[in-house]
């Protein structure tokens, strides 16, 4: 097992320098005091009990007790500091992974199983925390104690040290075999648990409950989940078997070592005090090894999860995010020979997160040599059959996708060169599928404009024909809309998205089927509101209803990602 990746923890440990220094100092103090205890008992036996000097014996026993208490105190404080180091380091890992996942391009999220990603963000850092706390709370301290115990034992009886060290190689091969099986079973358990969590994430929500009752899939889902549970159980049985085999090896090692040390002392005619000290020191040598065997199950899980964390942190972020700002309001959006294809299935994510396997061959172009401009202040209709590339074009226009070739321009600047804030200010979009938080109306709107006041929020809701939502419920803007907005109708969710546009007020507005779920009366009222409040904005409208696009200044018709309103160049 290659543990070199543990060195990658160094940047996350850097802020803990002062705690690390105090931790190591306390460990050394605890270890020195710990190995001094057997030496004090040796004096109590040889200089006190063996010669009938009771007072001397009691004095040395008192010294041993004091040393033991001090060692325990220093060790406890060190372990508490080590645990805090582990918690803080894990917090830094969790934050780094969240920042990485949120920075990854749209393709990663489109190709990944949401439940598996959530599991990676929540469960992996917790398991890694157990590893880090074991390293800093137990293993380093026990390792220091082991080294000092070996040195001290060597000063008393070199033959005993030789016996202790000679036993170790006898267990290397079986321990390696057990640990290899332990890690294999641990990885299988991790993969099986991740699959089960994805299964639950997909089904245990509002939409899943409705579908389950509509299609009567209760039995099928129970059977499917039982298969996941059985896979987890099989992996756990294999993992536990390997763990207890490893534990037997370490326990047998300790028994043989202690017996060998006693034999060495007896053969060399050691005093009773020396034998007592040797026995205590041998225990201090083997205790860390036994402890590692006992903690092997948790350590293997932590190592696996730490590997999985760094696998996410190593994913390349291909999305360009510039730093340029717009000096004035954005007016014109231009596509300059834009080509775009989606990444091959599975190529933008990790194998154990992928929603589908990697396919052979390269996907076709979703957008092909697309060139057009939105006239400032005008309305452009984007039409075409399903699958023509309309939504993909809209996502390119807001920067969710970035062109494989060509450029999307805001005035004279490449959209990819703009900062996130400038991009948000320049262009906004109402999507077909509206993202709704399980939170209040206020929280669902301030994600578009965090500094918005309640008056501005209520004004945006009224413009979006959602005034009843703040007038009828007793809690007004504090009304919770429910998981994925289940307390709202489809039309209300869509109008909520429009309210975000009214609130953020971008210069260029893209409406992707923005009124598809509305009745004719509400649609007419909303069109009047949009005409009034978005007057002067540059607009790109995707719609199938003739009433939505009948007043457009220009129309672009797409088919298979190409503009068929005029001749299109040959595909490369």
Automatic annotation (TrEMBL):
Gene3D superfamilies: ABC transporter type 1, transmembrane domain (1.20.1560.10), P-loop containing nucleotide triphosphate hydrolases (3.40.50.300). The chain crosses the membrane at residues 20-41, 61-87, 130-152, 158-178. Keywords: ATP-binding, Membrane, Nucleotide-binding, Transmembrane, Transmembrane helix. Signal peptide: none annotated. GO terms for molecular function: ATP binding. The keyword Membrane applies. Residues 21-301 form the ABC transmembrane type-1 domain. Its main location: membrane. This is ABC transporter ATP-binding protein.
